[in-house]
Design goal:
Elements: H1 6-16, E1 25-28, E2 37-42, E3 45-51, H2 64-74, E4 84-88, E5 98-102, H3 122-136, H4 155-170, H5 176-184, E6 196-198, E7 207-209, E8 216-219, E9 226-228, H6 230-238, H7 256-259, H8 264-275, H9 284-307, H10 315-319, H11 322-335
Antiparallel strand pairs: 1-2, 2-3, 3-5, 4-5, 6-9, 7-8
Helix pairs in contact: 3-8, 4-9, 5-11, 6-9, 9-11
């Protein structure tokens, strides 16, 4: 059962997309804690629709319009993103701003251990993921017409400020570790040496692979994309090796060799080789920052649960991760030199 009115949507799309037939089915995809996504079936063809949540939203959150603009810039380059088809900014159609893109068929892996893949092949899937991120970081955003897609410098400093404000705007209680991070992070922001397009939520379950191999067919969920520091973006992916395995993308406490998975050092080497870096600085500060950012995101989800407009049925469980993640963030901060 969809929460989108198929009749209203069908009527709009028939007038907006040449050759679009009536909608035969709407299926909401698994995941999508922030912006809900759906598969539309029409006349034997499939499309994907992504919308803002219904109801009251935090300022600057759920940037559907920015997602669409980025897809429109990246798709002509051959980078693996779905082809954008239509952006509708009229909330009267379905109750929220949305866009339609091509439906990319393939496999999404929700478990970072890749149990569906033979052990001998698993590293190839991680190589593809890392090399695709490195390719994203190689684009000249000015050439792609994205010069104003984000401020040119001090990305992490601005992000710490942004997520502090987002956390405060949806705060439901006080967490000691978050308060310490809010005080410590702005004082210790590392210098930014490179600037590029970054995804902001790059992990294995935001990737569509080919149905029969490790080729990356599409990168999904671009809501947090901007112009920023590629090291922060890679560190977000690398953080999965530091977080205890929970059945999702994280790999902490996994016997990587026995499972045919790359180590963090191997992932770093692959990224450095693909980007021409001699090496990376200590990642603990970046892990603390990215975990703090996750806390801000999940706090927003928790507020949407309270407001009754959370996208995913798993939103409440996600919100319960806030305190453990805040604790993990402060532990990483201590490894990076923070004092109690």
């Amino acid at each position: 059962m969809s929460d989108v009115d198929p009749q209203a949507l069908s009527q709009y799309l028939q007038g907006a997309i040449p050759g679009f037939d009536r909608i035969d089915a709407i299926e909401k995809f698994q995941g999508g804690q922030s912006n809900p996504s759906y598969r539309l079936t029409s006349g034997g063809k499939h499309y994907a629709l992504r919308r803002k949540p219904f109801g009251k939203l935090l300022r600057s959150a759920h940037a559907i319009e920015r997602e669409y603009r980025l897809l429109a810039a990246l798709h002509p380059t051959g980078f693996p993103v779905p082809r954008p088809i239509l952006l509708c900014e009229d909330e009267a159609v379905i109750g929220a701003v949305f866009y339609v893109m091509e439906f990319v068929d393939g496999r999404i892996f929700w478990n970072g251990m890749l149990p569906e893949v033979p052990k001998a092949d698993r590293c190839a899937y991680y190589d593809g993921m890392i090399e695709t991120q490195a390719r994203l970081h190689s684009f000249d955003h000015m050439t792609l017409g994205l010069g104003d897609f984000g401020a040119p410098g001090n990305y992490i400093g601005r992000q710490v400020e942004r997520w502090t404000k987002q956390y405060r705007a949806s705060q439901t209680g006080e967490i000691a570790e978050v308060e310490k991070l809010i005080e410590w992070l702005p004082r210790t922001v590392p210098e930014q040496s490179r600037t590029c397009i970054i995804h902001g939520d790059y992990r294995i379950d935001n990737i569509i692979y080919a149905a029969d191999g490790p080729q990356v067919r599409a990168i999904l969920d671009w809501e947090l994309a901007t112009i920023g520091d590629p090291l922060a973006d890679f560190a977000y992916l690398a953080m999965n090796w530091a977080l205890e395995w929970d059945g999702r993308a994280s790999l902490g406490n996994v016997d990587l060799l026995a499972e045919g998975l790359p180590t963090l050092d191997e992932a770093v080497d692959r990224y450095c080789a693909a980007t021409g870096r001699a090496g990376l600085p200590d990642l603990h500060w970046y892990f603390a920052y990215n975990l703090f950012r996750l806390v801000g995101i999940l706090q927003g989800i928790k507020q949407r649960v309270a407001d009754g407009n959370a996208s995913s049925p798993h939103a409440a469980a996600m919100a319960e991760r806030i305190v453990p993640l805040a604790t993990a963030a402060w532990n990483e901060a201590r490894r990076a030199g923070a004092k109690n």
